[in-house]
């Protein structure tokens, strides 16, 4: 009788839900709710409450249902509880506590898209494409991305152990990391040599455009004469804020040039973002107003690789389509979808995919990425003399398809791009009693040690030679 009473109560609750949903459906006649499926949801909810081996709070069941509803859509949609929502906002502001890893979902597991530079993860040798299978003693399979992030973040100074599978290795790798306050440096810069500047964007954050403007002004000042070329390094940049991508592109493009446009179902998801101050400035002042005029025309190379994602791909695609820069490196990640963060009444929010990105010439970035004009491998070869495997958007479970059916490189490219193989590694320098810098844990710009960077600098010099010949 007790069981029958519970079933009856569940049926009554389901009936009440049905009446409520039916009333709402009547108001939304153009898009009726799937009442049969919602009845099934109510039935499953009642069964769990009644028969599960242990009591479960209603809040937990509803939260898990919401998570499943979102994570089942694509790898980038997710539910953010109030704590995760706060952490997400802190991340875009350039400071948060954790390890410094950009991650994605794959077959119920967690894959590393890219480690953030100068963080515990990057210094410990975590690489793009690594598969995280355990966090401390907790298997990752079945955890949502949000749960995985929660377990990896924590109080600075505390330790966390990651068990990592790497496709080029037969045994899992176990690394213990010490959590730190992650203060990501959005823009780094240096004069590679006289007349040639280097700017690296590690992540697109709130202050990226201002930092880029300061970097370019300093490079011109330090060089004492106008630069003859600049390299924009977007390798392993996992993306970030859209207005940052527009601003970085606007620094090198003519005013009002189209940077990116988006297409989605809702009207407010359809945007055309051009190189004008309203699309990238955080305030009324234009952070790019004082840039040297020559920055719009000097020869330029953009460096990319499989860890360049989202906002990085927007910049590379815009500069490539406008023939403003030569894109050098390897094919990018292919994250061409727009996530809108929508706040909820519980102080949390949802991260929902609402549109796709397109380059100025109408190319969809989704599951395809940006193909370099000159393919240059990074020189990190494994034992089989093959380039290390990288996870890309097209490898992720439930990824959105490319609307142009362009998920793979074209079988018959219009222009065959040259592939430059890495030269033999340089001989080690003689021991001078000092510890040599660890090249694997830091990307200090050095054209002699960084093969891709060296080739990019050579391309700039060739462009300058051609300009001089044309001028004479």
UniProtKB/TrEMBL annotation:
UniProt feature, compositional bias: Basic and acidic residues: 432-447
Region called Disordered, residue ranges: 399-454
EC number from the UniProt entry: 3.4.21.102
Group of enzyme by EC: hydrolase
Coiled-coil regions listed in the entry: none
GO biological process, one term: proteolysis
Residues annotated as signal peptide: 1-25
Superkingdom of origin: Bacteria
Keywords: Hydrolase, Protease, Serine protease, Signal
Domain PDZ: from-to ranges: 85-153
Family of the protein in this entry: Belongs to the peptidase S41A family.
Name of the protein described by the UniProt record: Carboxyl-terminal protease
């Amino acid at each position: 009788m007790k069981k029958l009473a519970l079933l009856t109560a569940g049926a009554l609750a389901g009936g009440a839900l049905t009446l409520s949903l039916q009333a709402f459906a009547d108001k939304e006649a153009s898009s009726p709710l799937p009442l049969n499926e919602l009845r099934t949801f109510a039935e499953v909810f009642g069964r769990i409450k009644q028969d599960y081996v242990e009591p479960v709070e209603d809040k937990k069941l509803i939260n898990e249902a919401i998570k499943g509803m979102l994570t089942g859509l694509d790898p980038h949609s997710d539910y953010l509880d109030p704590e995760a929502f706060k952490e997400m906002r802190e991340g875009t502001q350039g400071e948060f506590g954790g390890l410094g890893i950009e991650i994605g979902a794959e077959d119920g597991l967690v894959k590393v898209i890219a480690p953030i530079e100068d963080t515990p993860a990057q210094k410990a040798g975590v690489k793009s494409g690594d598969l995280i299978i355990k966090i401390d003693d907790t298997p990752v399979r079945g955890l949502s991305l949000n749960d995985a992030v929660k377990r990896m973040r924590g109080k600075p100074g505390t330790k966390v152990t990651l068990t990592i599978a790497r496709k080029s290795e037969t045994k899992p790798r176990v690394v213990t990391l010490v959590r730190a306050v992650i203060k990501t440096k959005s823009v780094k810069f240096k004069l590679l040599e006289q007349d040639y500047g280097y700017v690296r964007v590690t992540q697109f954050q709130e202050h990226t455009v201002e930092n880029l403007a300061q970097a370019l002004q300093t490079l011109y000042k330090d060089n004492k004469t106008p630069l003859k070329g600049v390299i924009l390094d977007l390798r392993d940049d996992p993306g970030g804020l859209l207005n940052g991508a527009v601003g970085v592109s606007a620094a090198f493009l003519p005013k009002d040039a189209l940077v990116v446009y988006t297409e989605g179902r809702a009207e407010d998801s359809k945007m055309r973002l051009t190189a004008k101050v309203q699309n990238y400035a955080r305030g009324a002042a234009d952070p790019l107003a004082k840039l040297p005029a020559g920055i719009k025309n000097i020869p330029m190379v953009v460096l990319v690789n499989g860890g360049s994602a989202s906002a990085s791909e927007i910049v590379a695609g815009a500069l490539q389509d406008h023939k403003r820069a030569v894109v050098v490196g390897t094919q990018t990640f292919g994250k061409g979808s727009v996530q809108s963060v929508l706040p909820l009444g519980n102080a949390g929010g949802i991260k929902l995919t609402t549109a796709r990105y397109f380059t100025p010439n109408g190319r969809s970035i989704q599951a395809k990425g940006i193909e370099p004009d000159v393919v240059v491998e990074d020189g990190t070869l494994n034992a089989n003399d093959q380039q290390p495997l990288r996870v890309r958007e097209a490898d992720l479970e439930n990824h959105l398809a490319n609307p142009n059916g362009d998920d793979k490189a074209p079988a018959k490219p219009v222009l065959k791009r040259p592939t430059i193989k890495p030269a033999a590694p340089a001989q080690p320098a003689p021991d001078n009693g000092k510890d040599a810098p660890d090249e694997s844990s830091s990307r200090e710009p050095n054209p002699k040690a960084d093969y891709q960077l060296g080739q990019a600098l050579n391309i700039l010099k060739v462009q300058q030679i051609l300009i001089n010949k044309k001028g004479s």
